[in-house]
Amino acid sequence: MLKMMGRLCFAHKTALAPMVRVGTLPMRLLALDYGADIVYCEVRMDIYTHTCHISVHLNTVDFVAPDERVMFRTCSKEKGRVVFQMGTADPERALVVAKLVENDVAAVDVNMGCPKEYSTKGGMGSALLSDPEKIEAILSTLVNGISKPVTCKIRILSTLEDTVNLVKRIEKTGVAAIAVHGRMKEERPRHPVHCDYIQAVAESVSIPVIANGGSSDIVKTFEDIEKFRAAAGASSVMLARAAMWNPSIFRQQGALSVEEVMEDYIRYVSDTTAAYFIRSVSLLCMSVFCMSVLCSEVFGMTDFYNKTKAELEARKAALQTNGDQ
Ligand code: FNR
Asked: What is this model's ipTM?
């Protein structure tokens, strides 16, 4: 019972879907500001993340690979609502990654839908869908090994019966929710989303089902989110491309213009990357230059630019005083 307290609940929610190169920290914070309840990070492969060390900065917590690449960046503002998605085909390595991130995230998700070769050739992503024993081993190991909720994101199988049988097996592992992208692994965004499959899944399990795949066919406005949820008979909805095109789709009062969204986005990029830039004075100078072009000339955000520039220059002076290049 104690384990359940304060845990992220996946029922009746809207979520920003995991998106490689899109679902970075500034985008996730924007989606939360606009009204998303839950945000997923871009998929991170266990092979690259299991050896990360944690680096705490002024505004962020970074998970840094041995080659110094930041594999996952998060901050306190999203702590109770960010889901870390991993690509894995190895229960033990998955557990190492999950334990590494569990104190800084709200839940851990396993990607079981990616059809790209870089996932499937290692037995990850949609390759897992044809290996239910592996799925059970990974999810059970995670559920038993960490204190945060564990979820997975699947694609549908080629028959309704197989899809329902698989999700029933998944539910038995103790996962907190299942996100269902209503397309088969061979299908592309141009193919219609199979709401009937998502509905059958939702009817066959008692955990929350998060409907996904509605961006091309159904979801163009905030109101359409509810239409998609109802059509799929699901508890929750997850949006990828509709939110990538304009994350203010989560705004109950209506979407903002792309120009307004970009201003908000630049503010978050500045807030969440300054700490990284100040590690090097030369990089810091570059960031000030890029911001001046973007803010002053493209977006007319001169006041914001001047204020941020003054802050960054103060940090630069402090760095130079300390002799840290
Ligand atoms: C994706 N998708 C995806 N899925 C996933 O589980 N992990 C990931 O890292 C990614 N990366 C990703 C990047 C980009 C640019 C796109 C467009 C999509 C798939 C995504 O989460 C979702 O399942 C599909 O896009 C269908 O949902 P929509 O777009 O119809 O809302």
From this structure: 0.99
For residue 3, give the 3-state DSSP assignment: helix
Confidence of residue 323 (pLDDT cuts 50, 70, 90): very low
Q: In terms of Cα–Cα distance, which of 153, 148, 150 is closest to 129?
A: 153
Mean pLDDT of the region 137-152: 98
What is the radius of gyration, based on Cα positions, of the chain? 21
Q: How far apart are CA 148 and CA 105, in angstroms?
A: 8
Q: Which residue matches tokens 């989606």? A: 31
Task: Quickly count: other Cβ atoms within 10 Å of residue 225's Cβ.
Answer: 24
Model confidence, pTM = 0.89
Please answer whether residues 211 and 236 qualify as being in contact, where contact means their C-beta atoms are separated by less than 8 angstroms. Answer: yes
Q: What is the pLDDT of residue 278?
A: 45
Handedness of CA 60, 65, 70, 72 (dihedral sign): negative
d(CA 26, CA 59): 12
Residue ID of nearest Cα to ligand 1 atom 14: 19
Q: What single letter denotes the amino acid at residue 65?
A: A
Q: Which of 114, 152, 195, 295 is catalytic?
A: 114
Around ligand 1, the residues with Cβ closer than 6 Å are: 17-20, 22, 42-43, 85, 111, 113-114, 153, 181, 212-216, 239-242, 244
- Which tokens go with 22? 């899109």
pLDDT range class, residue 303, cuts 50, 70, 90:
confident
Q: Identify whether the C-beta of residue 43 lies closer than 8 Å to the C-beta of residue 87.
A: yes
The Cα 295–Cα 89 span in angstroms is 43
Q: How confident is the model at residue 43 (pLDDT cuts 50, 70, 90)?
A: very high
- Give, to the nearest 10 degrees, the angle between helix 132-145 and helix 160-172: 30
- Residue 286 alpha carbon to ligand 1 centre in Å: 32
